[in-house]
Write a structure and sequence with these properties.
362 residues; alpha/beta; TIM Barrel; 57% helix; binds ligand LCLJCK34; binds 4-methyl-5-hydroxyethylthiazole phosphate; binds magnesium ion; ThiD2; EC 2.5.1.3; metal-binding; TMP_synthase; magnesium ion binding
């Protein structure tokens, strides 16, 4: 029973109805999120956290609160917003349900003060747990998507920047790095902002080259750092564990250091000399072979890779590649992206069947 004396005839039934509706709303929203954690992300830990909160809410949903339910007399059952009917993707669906849960908990917290101060305090704590769940969910999704990404497009300045990138995204690209060494920051900021939106619309990750500040400013999924950029540990302090940090490496020592520093992935190259990074010596396919044997984290062969030499890079043990010109300068970026994907999928399939004969069969 509630511990507050209110106008029993009028206020109490209304408060009970509000608590009833919002307890249901929060539990339903959590259930929707839980299903994705369980079946979409295969994360028992995240699914359990949702389940735990649902059960705690069920414990608060007392019979006197339930008894106040009056669905036929609720004018709100007919009210929907057109946006509730559309979800452009899983991202939006999860976001909408997280908001729904957070709002419902806030309502319970406030109206709960008129019913039970303990209930209100418990639900307040739960609201913070949902915020944590939200960031863990996002981080988990980012890292899963990184692991699933085998083609990485690094941009170069282009009059057709957005069209080319959209075409690549339509070809199935899931990882993009915005690399622009010459523009003013105002341009970089505005392009980065648009590119993040475009990538997220297609469910792809968006990484920024060199600049941790820009990554924070546009809420990018991460940053790519070179040997001359700030150390991974500093970037981590700013970006936290939720965001992805990549590091360029050209030799085994740099690779080991990047791994120790806590990079989420590494660039391995330049495999071949390339005008995109003029003057930088090639590390060669030997370094790709070394990475194939020694890198415990995702790594992308980069530098001079195109459709003609892709097979050699794959034969050297690569399963992930990063390219600039091969797609940025392609006449048909969608087709080239699809071609890269088909080859990368082919080697993954072969290696999953017979890992030990990897290099001779590609
Ligand atoms: C995936 C990937 N690998 C390597 C690089 C090169 O980074 P860096 O050495 O910092 O050189 P710039 O790209 O900044 O010129 C990269 N960008 N991406
Ligand atoms: C950014 C970078 N880092 C190492 S090689 C490289 C450029 C790769 O460009 P391309 O794919 O056009 O050779
Ligand atoms: Mg750099």
């Amino acid at each position: 029973m509630g511990d507050k004396n209110n106008n029993i005839n009028f206020i109490q039934p209304a408060v009970y109805r509000i608590l009833d509706a919002n307890l249901d709303r929060a539990r339903e929203g959590l259930r929707i999120i839980e299903e994705w954690c369980r079946f979409g992300l295969n994360s028992g830990q995240l699914a359990n956290e949702c389940k735990q909160m649902r059960q705690e809410l069920a414990g608060l949903h007392s019979s006197e609160i339930r008894a106040a339910r009056d669905t036929p007399g609720d004018p709100g059952t007919e009210l929907t917003h057109p946006k509730e009917e559309q979800r452009s993707g899983i991202e939006q669906l999860l976001q909408a349900n997280l908001c729904r849960v957070e709002e419902a908990l806030r309502v319970i917290e406030e109206y709960g003060k008129l019913y039970s101060t303990q209930m209100s305090a418990d639900v307040k704590q739960m609201r913070y747990r949902v915020y944590t769940l939200e960031s863990n969910l996002l981080a988990y999704r980012r890292h899963q998507l990184l692991k699933r990404s085998h083609l990485y497009l690094v941009t170069s300045p282009s009059e057709n920047l957005f069209n080319v990138i959209e075409a690549a995204l339509q070809g199935g690209l899931t990882l993009l790095q915005y690399r622009d060494k010459t523009s003013d920051d105002s341009i970089r900021l505005s392009y980065a902002h648009k590119l993040r939106q475009l990538c997220h619309h297609y469910g792809a990750l968006f990484i920024i080259n060199d600049r941790v500040d820009l990554a924070v400013a546009v809420d990018a999924d991460g940053v790519h750092l070179g040997q001359q950029d700030i150390p991974v540990a500093f970037a981590r302090q700013i970006l936290g564990t939720q965001r992805i940090i990549g590091k360029s490496t050209t030799n085994p020592d740099e690779m080991q250091r990047a791994i120790q520093e806590g990079a989420d992935y590494i660039g391995v190259g330049p495999v071949y000399e390339t005008p995109t990074k003029a003057g930088k010596a090639a590390a060669g396919v030997e370094y790709v072979q070394y990475a194939a044997k020694n890198s415990p984290i995702p790594w992308f062969a980069i530098g001079g890779i195109d459709m003609n030499n892709l097979n050699d890079v794959l034969k050297s043990g690569a399963e992930r590649v990063a390219v600039v010109r091969a797609i940025m300068e392609a006449e048909q970026p969608t087709l080239i992206t699809q071609y890269f994907h088909s080859q990368l999928t082919r080697v993954q399939t072969l290696r999953s069947i017979e890992p030990q004969v990897v290099q001779s069969h590609v």
